[in-house]
């Protein structure tokens, strides 16, 4: 094991703490779900260990890997989704955080292979479009990562519903990716509820464009800021 850069310990602590948000917002069950972050100034990422319960996560248990998913430091094996995370970091240099959940409402849309239509202003603000569906891919290797990158490259949405699987979100930092995962489940639930009593119509594109532009560029002065 080589010595880690000083930023690694800060990123490990941040990734560990952010996992509590997945529990707080009811996005995960048992050991499912994971968060990773790029360690600033390095070609390393910090990611949840595989099979460790949320109560047992500590900063030291967070595994440091290179951008090919090989372990650089850690007592545990990294998340079984590490290949997917690593692929995203390799392909999208602007990404600083990746989150994966099987949050129930969003995953129900993924099980139907149905994008979530951009039908409410909060969704236009945050996602700027429908939340798209990515291809079905088996775990292990680069297939999930390729599907995430192919779907989200050039797309406003920081969230993708991987067909028959669940949600992956990206952000400039891990907190932004967690926020996208929380908001994805929130809008998945709201649009689902709306459809129980009738059809749901997508907002007109010019309204989506105006809302997205205001929220991303004016509101709060920076992209992805909290309300
Ligand atoms: Zn999964």
TrEMBL record:
Q: Does the keyword Translocase apply?
A: no
Q: What is its EC number?
A: 5.1.3.4
Q: Per UniProt, which keywords does this protein have?
A: Metal-binding, Zinc
User: What cofactor does its activity depend on?
Assistant: Zn(2+)
Q: What class of enzyme is it?
A: isomerase
Q: Which Pfam families match?
A: Aldolase_II
Give the transmembrane ranges.
none
Which SUPFAM superfamilies has this protein been placed in? AraD/HMP-PK domain-like
- Ranges where the Class II aldolase/adducin N-terminal domain occurs: 13-192
* Catalysed conversion reaction: L-ribulose 5-phosphate = D-xylulose 5-phosphate
- At the top level, the lineage of the source is Bacteria
Per the similarity annotation, which family is this? Belongs to the aldolase class II family. AraD/FucA subfamily.
Q: Which NCBIfam families match?
A: PRK06557.1
* Protein name, per record: L-ribulose-5-phosphate 4-epimerase
**From what organism does this protein derive?**
Nocardiopsis mangrovi
Recall the taxonomic lineage recorded for the source organism. Bacteria, Bacillati, Actinomycetota, Actinomycetes, Streptosporangiales
